[in-house]
Amino acid sequence: MKKHFLKLAICFLALLGPGAALAHDFKIGEIEIGHPYARAMLPGAKVGGGYLELTNHGGADRLVSVSSDRAASVQIHEMKMDGGIMEMRELKDGIAVPADTTVELKPGGYHLMFMNVAQPFKEGEMVKATLTFEKAGSVDVELMVGPPAGGAPDMKHDEAEHGDSAK
Questions:
Q1: What is the per-residue DSSP string for 66-118?
Q2: Where is composition skewed (Basic and acidic residues) in this entry (predicted)?
Q3: pTM here?
């Protein structure tokens, strides 16, 4: 009985482990894309936000464009304070990803804006997108959709599987 249980547990971990590890981390060349997520949208909303981390272990690069079949277009945006007023603007030239750095796309800073979304993002689903870098090329990613207000979906279990729990 113990042997049967052990074999079953090993098979289960073999199936779960790699899939779970890849579910929120993607890589192209020397650039790692960590924990991409989007916020759920309210019914009838046409614009959604996306967030992720870009860690560059190589030479300088630039995120130049993003596309998704879930939106007519995806823009790269920056939010910042200017004289006590929050401003948001599209970064038509993309975002620089300097060598040996991590650039965060997060609420209140750099982020992705999914424009003219036909079906609002629902909590718990995955949204596919393609990130295109000037030098590294293009990579397909999936953004996990979390709550409409608040931060990233609960990914604590993923961090433990990645060995990142000490962060």
A1: EE-TTEEEEEEEEEEEETTEEEEEE-TT-EEE-TTEEEEE-TTSEEEEEEEES
A2: 154-167
A3: 0.77
